Amino acid sequence: MSNQDVVVLGGTDEPGTCCPGLLTAPLDEDQAVELAKVFKALGDPVRLRLLSMIASRAGGEVCVCDLTPAFDLSQPTISHHLKLLRQAGLIACERRGTWVYYRLVPETTDRLAGILSRSMGEPLPDPAASAGAAS
């Protein structure tokens, strides 16, 4: 396969080393830039559907030949959307003969979930405390 600009959130495989949860600390500029690339890739209905089709597939991978017929789009357009998902680090692929098989990169989606979620029972920030600090 060709070289790809894969954005891996945090750049390490250790849990919790990516970005803090949004409720624990503000994101720094670099973290925000990394996250924005991933969210931009997710900000299109076709790409969301593709990601969902790949992630929910029994066996954990799907051939591009099974993805393309689900859309009223040309094959090059589907390939472009898949390329953007790959560049965001959300999916990976492998060529087998004439077909390309796609699979989810769970580390990326797990990190996104960790950034966007809060621990069970963790309180939301107190709006009164923020308002008092602004006065």
How would you summarize this macromolecular structure in one to three sentences?
A three-stranded antiparallel sheet has the order 1-3-2.
Textual characterization of the structure:
Helix 2 crosses helix 4. It is elongated, with a radius of gyration of 18 Å. The protein is built from six helices and three strands; from the N terminus they run H-H-E-H-H-E-E-H-H. With 135 residues, the chain is mainly alpha-helical. Helices cover 45% and strands 11% of the residues.
Key words describing this protein structure:
135 residues; mainly alpha; three-stranded antiparallel beta sheet
Q: Secondary structure elements and their pairing?
A:
Blueprint: H1 29-42, H2 45-55, E1 61-63, H3 64-67, H4 75-87, E2 91-96, E3 99-104, H5 106-116, H6 127-134
Antiparallel strand pairs: 1-3, 2-3
Terminal CA distance reads: 56 Å
Poorly predicted residue ranges: 1-18
Global structural class = mainly alpha
**Helix-strand topology string:** HHEHHEEHH
Task: Please count the helical segments.
Answer: 6
Q: Count all strands and give the number.
A: 3
The helix content is 40-55%
Radius of gyration (CA) equals: 18 Å
Strand order of the largest sheet: 1-3-2
Overall mean pLDDT: 81
Major sheet characteristics: 3 strands, antiparallel
Strand content: 5-15%
Shape: elongated
